[in-house]
Amino acid sequence: MTDILTYGFTPAMLPLDTQGAPARVTAAHKDRYELVCEFGVCFGRLKTSVYYGGGLCLEEFPTVGDFVTLNYNNRGDSQIIKTLERKSFFSRFDPTPGRGEQAVAANFDYVFIIQALNQGYKSFNISRLTRYLTAARQSGALPVIVLNKADLVDAEERAGYVKEAEKAARGVSVYAVSAKTGYGMDSLGEYLKPSKTLVFLGSSGVGKSSLVNAAAGEEIMTTGEVREADGKGRHTTTHRQLIMLSSGVMIIDTPGMRSLGMWDVSDGLSETFADVERYLGKCKFSDCGHRSEPGCAIKSAVESGGITRERWNSYQQIKGESKSAAKYAEDKIAYLRNQKELHKKWGKEGRIRDKAARKNSR
Ligand code: GDP
Ligand code: ZN
Predict the structure, then answer these.
(1) Of 29, 15, 26, residue with least CA distance to 66
(2) Which of 16, 63, 88, 280 is deepest in the core (most CB within 10 A)?
(3) Å from CA of 328 to ligand 2 middle
């Protein structure tokens, strides 16, 4: 017996009319899911009529971290009959025709945004930080900024970085830590509580795997040094994408998460850049390009120090990236049309499978 509550499930997540047993998705493969439910670990497939109905109002495809309900089958694959409402998620655009926006992780409580304090191109970078922050805010979970490799800088530099991050982060907590020496790791304890789920965002090499291992107190993930040494895959102990640590904390690490980097950032953008957006629409000309036009409110704000040049630059950079997301919205109609075709096809295959399954279970 597994207590699904330890996986973060709460009965309030179930709508009143829900049937089936609650379960959490621990890994997602092409059309098969690994799950935990009250009966333990099991596999599941989507119920065709619910997920591939042919119309456009289909049940959301589950992803890692999702809570779902099952028609449990102790002799074979269970049937997933519903995706419960998500309290947080990350999605990315999958360019494969008919795929569109795909959730890559769901129902995490905290997003640890990791940057490293060493020198080099992968080091501390405010505009990258704000980009991650925007995505984290948009996900619905609580962002936490973790500046790793604090052992590589002196106390004064460290304090400077923390201050700079705090200024950009507006109210989000910032911690300087070292996965290597353990410095500052205690301060993360308040997030590492049983039945809480974490995701780690950050460029490769900043020490995400090392931090997971340090937080877990065991070698859950293969770190850079080992990867370089033997060229083996990422996970030492498991292929699961939602990992339950012995402390009761869960960590989601999916292939899709690792390729995050292009989000529709428009929603969280205003919140992160409230200090910049305050000046928008105040220029003399409504079509001001904010370069050398007379009466430009942005230009004078930068000159007077109301906003820094870096803030303005990172705002523009992110704004530019969210344009590609806007393009995606335009393509959405074509995308939905493709979906419909695919669902028809998958639906047919699935119905044949469901029929066979029913026959077998008789
Ligand atoms: P990931 O790609 O983000 O998962 O990063 P890894 O955890 O694989 O770490 C990348 C490299 O940074 C490895 O060589 C680690 O040993 C090293 N590293 C990780 N954390 C620290 C730290 O706190 N201090 C120092 N000096 N090195 C670290
Ligand atoms: Zn202007």
Answers:
(1) 26
(2) 63
(3) 28
